[in-house]
TrEMBL record:
Name assigned to this protein: MEI1 protein
Organism name: Pedionomus torquatus
Domain of life: Eukaryota
Gene Ontology biological-process entries: meiosis I
Gene from which the chain derives: Mei1
Length: 302
């Protein structure tokens, strides 16, 4: 069935949303809801289907051609197809690396366009933003070295006779420029203020991957990003209102991130003690799974 559906996708075009979108969803679910042995076989089937990978390339390209809707919360059929495409490609990037599967057709993307889709979001629906961030997180964790992807559009026309002021720093962060990274971090901070649960989880996970990527590339830039005073204001905004608000999963994961990179100007000993006190008073068995997992990571970091 997986083989048949993937072939069916390969015969579609991006305008066949009624058929293509549920088909991509089926492929995505097949990858995630199966045993590890079957998962490896599924990855091989999908990565060996050149037509499927070609239609995925066309679907992703539609992200830049998409006209923003009048209402950002509205998810059109075209947007739903984009969500399915980004999520499936993110999964293929992840599992191709995990199983070292052979790739028969590569996908080309410009990292700047992916970043700009988040930075200049232009009324994108939340689910589409989440899907793109899932992809961004997957490629960041692999240092843009995935065999499935070919990165294009970076540093191809830079003149050697006119070096930029931050050229050495930009080279260290390739394929990103330093300014792009700072813009991305600010955009992720702004998205957190929306306090949407699905969006918050995706944003924090993406921010974790961004700082981890920066730390691997240039520790000074990573520590600079992690210690920005704006993060403390962001935490105060997330903590406004409600009881035991420190036990929100996105707050716990953010604090864990700052602790990991020793941002003592963001998190104080007093706040760590307050979190421990709230955790001690909470009924851990009744905490939501996301909160319980975030609390576990925080305690391990402490």
């Amino acid at each position: 069935l997986l083989f048949s559906v993937s072939n069916l996708c390969g015969r579609c075009n991006p305008k066949d949303t009624d058929l293509l979108q549920p088909s991509l969803n089926f492929l995505y679910c097949s990858l995630h809801q199966t045993t590890p042995c079957s998962q490896q076989r599924a990855v091989v089937v999908l990565l060996s289907n050149v037509s499927l990978l070609e239609i995925l390339q066309k679907v992703l390209k539609c992200t830049w051609l998409r006209s923003p809707p009048s209402e950002p919360a509205y998810l059109s059929s075209e947007d739903a197809l984009l969500c399915s495409g980004w999520l499936l490609v993110a999964s293929l990037v992840l599992y191709q690396h995990r199983y070292n599967a052979e790739v028969h057709q590569t996908l080309s993307l410009d990292p700047a366009e992916v970043l700009n889709a988040v930075i200049f979001r232009k009324k994108k629906p939340i689910l589409l933003l989440v899907s793109i961030m899932q992809f961004l997180r997957a490629v960041l964790r692999q240092n843009f070295s995935s065999s499935l992807l070919v990165t294009v559009g970076q540093n191809t026309a830079q003149s050697a006779t006119q070096p930029q002021p931050s050229s050495l720093q930009d080279a260290a962060l390739h394929p990103f420029a330093t300014e792009q990274v700072f813009l991305l971090v600010v955009s992720l901070q702004n998205l957190l203020v929306h306090k949407d649960f699905l969006l918050s989880q995706a944003v924090v996970a993406c921010l974790e991957s961004v700082v981890e990527y920066l730390y691997m590339k240039n520790q000074d830039v990573a520590l600079h990003v992690a210690s920005q005073p704006w993060h403390r204001f962001l935490l105060f905004t997330l903590l406004s209102g409600g009881q035991k608000s420190f036990l929100q999963p996105e707050v716990l994961r953010l604090i864990t991130l700052f602790l990991r990179y020793q941002s003592s100007n963001i998190i104080s000993q007093k706040e760590i003690s307050q979190i421990l006190q709230e955790a001690a008073e909470a009924n851990v068995a009744e905490l939501p799974e996301a909160t319980s997992h975030a609390l576990h990571l925080f305690l391990c970091q402490v």
